């Protein structure tokens, strides 16, 4: 731990810091109790010790210091948590050391740009209240934007003037800052950058929506053109919506509109509502659904997914119903899936966007639509069926090739199998054949299925791990053995799943776990399956087991639940060992103890994911 972190920890009151997130009640000379924020409970099991500056939950086992608490509840890294606690305590952050004059200059420019954007926001707000902003106020009122919403989102107006903003700030900010802000334009100049007098306002006759960094600082704007039949803007006014260009502050694919206001609600509601436009976001937010964010009309990016993942891994997507919105929704689903998000999709009645829906149907109807959102599998399968509605083999293959990239992106095997099963059922394809074709496509790293997979009648081999898992669980094992079994299972699973065709005779059979074949024989005999002890007969029997697994094993979903149970038991045992090590540690602040706490946090997160079926 750095000297600065140690200083912050010495000055931080853990009771006060944690009390800012949850309600604590005194339960002794140094102890405070409350409901644990990390798991659901009705009676308090979360304890904070004032003098030791330590917290512990007797319900879920979470424990640590003030930094680990803030890091976990805010989904921050350790350095970010140190800074957050320092700011809560009013401790100045250490001055950043720059490696070069250029780096220092860039940091100085960013500070001045932040000041300029804040000043511009205030000025735009003043212009909206002025007589010249009357048409903009009329438009906002007609869209159901209340004065409260205008204040909350700091909405303003840029007047129809080429020089108003420039003249307001030319004497307050240097030319370099003005040019770099994205708030001004200029004609190409020969012989160097243009002087301030040659700059002109980029946003004119537009309602201004500030775009904020996650911290709440304004870093860019979206301008919506104000037009009406009585006062047309003209062809030279530009597009309806116009965003700030990329600047040292702003990269459009790295920002989510309203994340600064929505992140607390996301954590509380445990999901994010993702919409396409800023008006959609504002309209929904002001009606009480505050876990909503928008992409501001831009394509969803990996950087935005990473921002979102810091708050939640559950997303409900509600993009516009037109073709562009559907394509954007599909791309967003792909990115979110690759990062392990649980995704649902809303399709609103009447083809309405979220803003119009809540204004015409009411917020209760929209809440019902959120609750009725479809899973990504259902949504994508319906899109595939709409794109390829025929019942012939060619349409079935095309539909599956449309779905295959989405299925392969899903990180959890159980969810992939369930998606494939649902797709096969709704498209009229044999489920076993489809799973084998998906497996072959994955092995060959193909994004499509060969036509032979749907047309022929020869069955492929079913996953061998079904029998290994079921048989391995017949005997009771100690926690240590479960942990070892979990590791061996993964290695064995990868090895056997790579075999196909006749290779199972040469590769799979010699590597069967001890006693597994005898267990299969006993199970077969109980079901009146005749078998002898001859080696060739054993091979024939095993092949029969592979091809007719429905008679001799549970469903694939049940088998994968067994795998999950094994992992859960293994993780619980490992967590127990690490918690015991912390309990016996002589110094709760030693690097080794802090490392163990960090590992516990990661393992507990993984355990919760497994227990929730992810």
UniProtKB/TrEMBL annotation:
Domain observations: Contains an N-terminal zinc-binding domain, a central core domain that contains the primase activity, and a C-terminal DnaB-binding domain.
EC numbers for this chain: 2.7.7.101
Keywords tagged on the record: DNA replication, DNA-binding, DNA-directed RNA polymerase, Magnesium, Metal-binding, Nucleotidyltransferase, Primosome, Transcription, Transferase, Zinc, Zinc-finger
Protein name: DNA primase
Reaction catalyzed: ssDNA + n NTP = ssDNA/pppN(pN)n-1 hybrid + (n-1) diphosphate
Domain Toprim: 270-351
Database matches in InterPro entries: DNA_primase_core_N_sf, DNA_primase_DnaB-bd, DNA_primase_DnaG, DNA_primase_Znf_CHC2, DnaG_bac, DNAG_N, DnaG_primase, TOPRIM_DnaG_bac
Cofactor: Zn(2+)
Cofactor comment: Binds 1 zinc ion per monomer.
Class of enzymatic activity (EC top level): transferase
Similarity remark: Belongs to the DnaG primase family.
